[in-house]
Automatic annotation (TrEMBL):
Residues 1-55 are annotated as: Disordered. It comes from the Eukaryota. This is Uncharacterized protein.
């Protein structure tokens, strides 16, 4: 009887470890997804910056042409 209870406690501890491991894995996946989203946002910001630079160059060229 006592051994059976001990085995049951051990199984319960094992299930608990498995649940904790699954939860840690889910948290790692959420963290990876946040990092991917941050990288996408940084790329969008770089693209906006390139667009502003192109517009600035266009304005400068237009001003040069208008002056001439």
């Amino acid at each position: 009887r006592e051994r059976e209870r001990e085995r049951e406690r051990e199984r319960e501890r094992e299930r608990e470890r498995e649940r904790e491991e699954r939860e840690r894995e889910r948290e790692r996946e959420r963290e990876r997804e946040r990092e991917r989203e941050n990288e996408r946002e940084r790329e969008r910001e770089r693209e906006r910056e390139r667009e502003r630079e192109r517009e600035s160059v266009c304005v400068c060229l237009t001003n040069v042409l208008v002056v001439r």
